[in-house]
Protein backbone atom coordinates (compact mmCIF):
# COMPACT_ATOMS: atom_id res chain seq x y z
CA UNK A 1 0.00 0.00 0.00
CA UNK A 2 1.37 3.42 -0.95
CA UNK A 3 0.68 6.10 1.65
CA UNK A 4 1.62 9.00 -0.66
CA UNK A 5 -1.89 9.05 -2.11
CA UNK A 6 -3.41 9.66 1.31
CA UNK A 7 -0.84 11.80 3.13
CA UNK A 8 -0.60 15.53 2.38
CA UNK A 9 2.01 18.17 3.26
CA UNK A 10 0.69 21.18 5.17
CA UNK A 11 3.57 23.62 4.76
CA UNK A 12 5.26 22.82 8.07
CA UNK A 13 8.48 20.81 7.81
CA UNK A 14 8.05 17.14 8.75
CA UNK A 15 4.30 17.52 9.33
CA UNK A 16 1.79 15.77 7.12
CA UNK A 17 -1.90 15.00 7.53
CA UNK A 18 -4.17 12.24 6.37
CA UNK A 19 -7.76 13.48 6.38
CA UNK A 20 -10.42 11.04 7.52
CA UNK A 21 -12.56 11.56 4.45
CA UNK A 22 -16.29 10.95 4.39
CA UNK A 23 -17.88 9.41 7.47
CA UNK A 24 -18.55 5.75 6.68
CA UNK A 25 -21.86 4.18 7.71
CA UNK A 26 -19.98 1.76 10.00
CA UNK A 27 -16.87 3.45 11.46
CA UNK A 28 -16.35 0.80 14.15
CA UNK A 29 -16.36 -2.01 11.62
CA UNK A 30 -13.95 -0.08 9.39
CA UNK A 31 -11.52 0.52 12.26
CA UNK A 32 -11.62 -3.16 13.17
CA UNK A 33 -11.13 -4.29 9.56
CA UNK A 34 -8.27 -5.82 7.59
CA UNK A 35 -7.98 -2.52 5.68
CA UNK A 36 -7.16 -0.63 8.89
CA UNK A 37 -4.61 -3.27 9.88
CA UNK A 38 -3.04 -2.95 6.40
CA UNK A 39 -2.90 0.85 6.77
CA UNK A 40 -1.28 0.62 10.20
CA UNK A 41 1.26 -1.91 8.89
CA UNK A 42 2.09 0.42 5.97
CA UNK A 43 2.61 3.30 8.41
CA UNK A 44 4.90 1.17 10.57
CA UNK A 45 6.93 0.14 7.51
CA UNK A 46 7.31 3.77 6.36
CA UNK A 47 9.72 6.48 7.48
CA UNK A 48 6.98 8.09 9.56
CA UNK A 49 8.19 8.49 13.14
CA UNK A 50 4.97 9.47 14.91
CA UNK A 51 1.28 9.30 14.05
CA UNK A 52 -1.48 10.98 16.01
CA UNK A 53 -5.04 9.76 15.47
CA UNK A 54 -7.73 12.21 16.54
CA UNK A 55 -10.81 10.17 17.36
CA UNK A 56 -14.35 10.85 18.47
CA UNK A 57 -15.01 10.90 22.24
CA UNK A 58 -14.71 7.44 23.72
CA UNK A 59 -17.90 7.19 25.75
CA UNK A 60 -20.86 6.03 23.71
CA UNK A 61 -18.75 4.95 20.71
CA UNK A 62 -16.46 1.98 20.17
CA UNK A 63 -14.26 3.75 17.58
CA UNK A 64 -11.60 5.13 19.92
CA UNK A 65 -11.25 1.97 22.00
CA UNK A 66 -10.86 -0.16 18.86
CA UNK A 67 -8.12 2.10 17.51
CA UNK A 68 -6.51 2.48 20.95
CA UNK A 69 -6.03 -1.28 21.11
CA UNK A 70 -4.04 -1.18 17.85
CA UNK A 71 -1.58 1.64 18.60
CA UNK A 72 1.46 2.01 20.87
CA UNK A 73 -0.08 4.54 23.23
CA UNK A 74 -3.14 6.62 23.99
CA UNK A 75 -3.42 10.15 25.34
CA UNK A 76 -6.77 11.19 26.79
CA UNK A 77 -7.73 14.78 25.93
CA UNK A 78 -10.31 16.28 28.30
CA UNK A 79 -12.18 19.58 28.12
CA UNK A 80 -12.07 20.93 31.68
CA UNK A 81 -15.33 22.83 31.15
CA UNK A 82 -17.24 19.67 30.20
CA UNK A 83 -15.44 16.58 31.47
CA UNK A 84 -16.75 14.98 34.63
CA UNK A 85 -14.48 12.96 36.90
CA UNK A 86 -16.73 9.87 36.63
CA UNK A 87 -16.57 10.04 32.81
CA UNK A 88 -12.78 10.23 32.89
CA UNK A 89 -12.73 7.22 35.22
CA UNK A 90 -15.05 5.33 32.83
CA UNK A 91 -12.80 6.30 29.94
CA UNK A 92 -9.77 4.90 31.75
CA UNK A 93 -11.60 1.64 32.49
CA UNK A 94 -12.78 1.23 28.88
CA UNK A 95 -9.33 1.93 27.46
CA UNK A 96 -7.67 -0.44 29.90
CA UNK A 97 -10.21 -3.17 29.10
CA UNK A 98 -9.55 -2.72 25.38
CA UNK A 99 -5.83 -3.29 25.93
CA UNK A 100 -4.82 0.33 25.38
CA UNK A 101 -1.63 1.71 26.91
CA UNK A 102 -2.59 5.05 28.47
CA UNK A 103 0.32 7.49 28.29
CA UNK A 104 -1.38 10.37 30.06
CA UNK A 105 -4.03 13.04 29.93
CA UNK A 106 -4.13 16.54 28.43
CA UNK A 107 -6.58 18.98 29.98
CA UNK A 108 -7.82 21.75 27.68
CA UNK A 109 -9.58 25.00 28.54
CA UNK A 110 -8.12 25.09 32.05
CA UNK A 111 -8.67 28.44 33.75
CA UNK A 112 -5.39 29.37 35.38
CA UNK A 113 -5.78 31.84 38.19
CA UNK A 114 -2.70 33.56 39.63
CA UNK A 115 -3.81 32.48 43.06
CA UNK A 116 -3.23 28.82 42.15
CA UNK A 117 -0.14 29.14 39.96
CA UNK A 118 2.43 28.29 42.67
CA UNK A 119 0.80 24.88 43.14
CA UNK A 120 1.73 23.88 39.60
CA UNK A 121 5.44 24.17 40.31
CA UNK A 122 5.89 21.80 43.20
CA UNK A 123 4.38 18.81 44.92
CA UNK A 124 1.30 18.69 47.11
CA UNK A 125 3.45 18.07 50.20
CA UNK A 126 4.36 21.75 49.99
CA UNK A 127 0.71 22.84 50.18
CA UNK A 128 0.81 23.38 53.94
CA UNK A 129 4.00 25.42 53.64
CA UNK A 130 2.38 27.54 50.91
CA UNK A 131 -0.73 28.12 53.04
CA UNK A 132 1.40 29.22 55.97
CA UNK A 133 3.52 31.55 53.86
CA UNK A 134 0.47 33.01 52.12
CA UNK A 135 -0.90 34.15 55.48
CA UNK A 136 2.28 36.16 55.99
CA UNK A 137 2.05 37.95 52.65
CA UNK A 138 1.00 41.58 52.69
CA UNK A 139 -0.95 41.22 49.46
CA UNK A 140 -2.87 38.13 48.40
CA UNK A 141 -1.96 38.84 44.76
CA UNK A 142 1.80 38.86 45.23
CA UNK A 143 3.81 35.77 44.40
CA UNK A 144 7.20 35.29 45.93
CA UNK A 145 9.80 34.41 43.34
CA UNK A 146 11.19 31.80 45.74
CA UNK A 147 7.89 29.92 45.56
CA UNK A 148 8.47 29.38 41.84
CA UNK A 149 12.13 28.39 42.01
CA UNK A 150 12.94 24.81 43.06
CA UNK A 151 14.88 24.67 46.31
CA UNK A 152 18.08 22.63 46.20
CA UNK A 153 17.80 19.09 47.51
CA UNK A 154 14.07 18.82 46.82
CA UNK A 155 12.45 16.99 43.97
CA UNK A 156 9.58 19.04 42.63
CA UNK A 157 6.63 17.49 40.88
CA UNK A 158 4.18 19.33 38.65
CA UNK A 159 0.54 18.98 39.59
Automatic annotation (TrEMBL):
Gene Ontology cellular-component annotations: plasma membrane
InterPro entries named in the record: Bact_polysacc_biosynth/exp, P-loop_NTPase
Matches recorded under Gene3D superfamilies: P-loop containing nucleotide triphosphate hydrolases
GO molecular function: protein tyrosine kinase activity
Highest taxon listed in the record's lineage: Bacteria
Matching PANTHER family: FERRIC ENTEROBACTIN TRANSPORT PROTEIN FEPE, TYROSINE-PROTEIN KINASE
Protein name (database record): AAA domain-containing protein
Protein source organism: Dictyobacter vulcani
Biased composition (Low complexity): 133-147
Region (Disordered): 127-159
Amino acid sequence: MSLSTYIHAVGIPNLHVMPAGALPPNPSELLDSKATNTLLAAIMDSKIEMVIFDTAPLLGLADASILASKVDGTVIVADSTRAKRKHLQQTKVLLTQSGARILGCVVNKQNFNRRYMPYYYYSSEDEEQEKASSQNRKSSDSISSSSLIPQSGRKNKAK
